[in-house]
Amino acid sequence: MKKQKWLYWVVAVLLVCAAGYSFIHVRSAEKTNSVKVAKEMSSASVRDAKISSLKKDQRARQRKPIDWNRSSLTGAYPDLTKYLHHLKGKKQLWIEVSLKKQRVYIMQGQYRLYTMYASVGKNYENTQEFQRTPIGTFKIQKQHGTNYFDATKNMGAKYWTSFHGHGAYRFESVPFNQDGHVINKQAKRLGKKVTKKNNIKNYGSIRLAVADARWLQENIPAKTRVVIHNRKSEKNDLEFLY
């Protein structure tokens, strides 16, 4: 009988010790998790502040009125050398093209490094196939040139860089005629709103200011990801871009 009571006491002590250990372990885990959550919130806060600051700076530097020959923003272009080693993951350098906003964004992860005025055709029901802008994810290709002229379309452009079809779809300047003069009527549409009635017919390519087209060609390496969409891309709507 005494032996049985002794066993009960041992079991009871063990149960108390186990309960105490479990309590301490849970509290420790809660504390660790709390610290982790706090760090993540702090990191997200810093990230959001940086995103907001970059956007604000670029809005303030937008060149107005738009000049088809000069850079979209006043001041210097970003130095991309420190970003080019990020080839994969959410820190990589990439290009976002918004048909909705008629803008091209040079991105590093979720950070907008530069904003360019663009002239991009939208895809409506009556848009012919050869005039459609490709939607989706592409990559900058090796094909590029300082200028071209297409006699079948009676127009050309400067500083073109292929992103699809090995030269068929390009980032390029506003259009020029055979004599090397800009086609003013189309150049003036750079960065402007596009409607079904007043669409841009650029055969799927993406037009930029001459300075922007040249900088993109000289600084964005082949294989850089290009995402073209017709959605409003804001902080809480970036998931589809990754």
Tell me what the structure shows.
The protein is an alpha+beta fold and 242 residues long. It folds into 2 domains: 1-61; 66-241, Beta Barrel (L,D-transpeptidase catalytic domain-like), CATH 2.40.440.10. 31% of the residues lie in helices and 23% in strands. The protein has a 9-stranded mixed β-sheet with strand order 4-9-1-2-3-8-7-6-5. The chain is elongated and about 105 Å long. It starts with a helix and ends in a 13-residue tail after the last strand. The mean pLDDT is 86.
Distinctive features:
242 residues; alpha+beta; L,D-transpeptidase catalytic domain-like; 2 domains; nine-stranded mixed beta sheet; 3 helices; 9 strands; 31% helix; 23% strand; elongated
Strand order of the largest sheet: 4-9-1-2-3-8-7-6-5
Main beta sheet: strand number and arrangement? 9 strands, mixed
Q: Kindly identify the CATH topology of the largest domain.
A: L,D-transpeptidase catalytic domain-like
| Regions with little confidence, pLDDT below 50 for 5+ residues | none
CATH architectural type of the largest domain: Beta Barrel
Number of strands: 9
Terminal residue distance: 70 Å
Helix/strand structural class: alpha+beta
Query: What form results from the Cα inertia axes?
Result: elongated
**What share of residues are in beta strands?**
15-25%
Radius of gyration: 28 Å
Please give the CATH class of the largest domain. Answer: Mainly Beta
Q: Give the SSE order as H and E letters.
A: HEEEEEEEHEHE
Q: What's the CATH H-level superfamily name of the largest domain?
A: L,D-transpeptidase catalytic domain-like
- What's the tally of helices? 3
Organism: Ligilactobacillus pabuli
Pfam families: YkuD
Transmembrane segments: 6-24
Pathway: Cell wall biogenesis; peptidoglycan biosynthesis
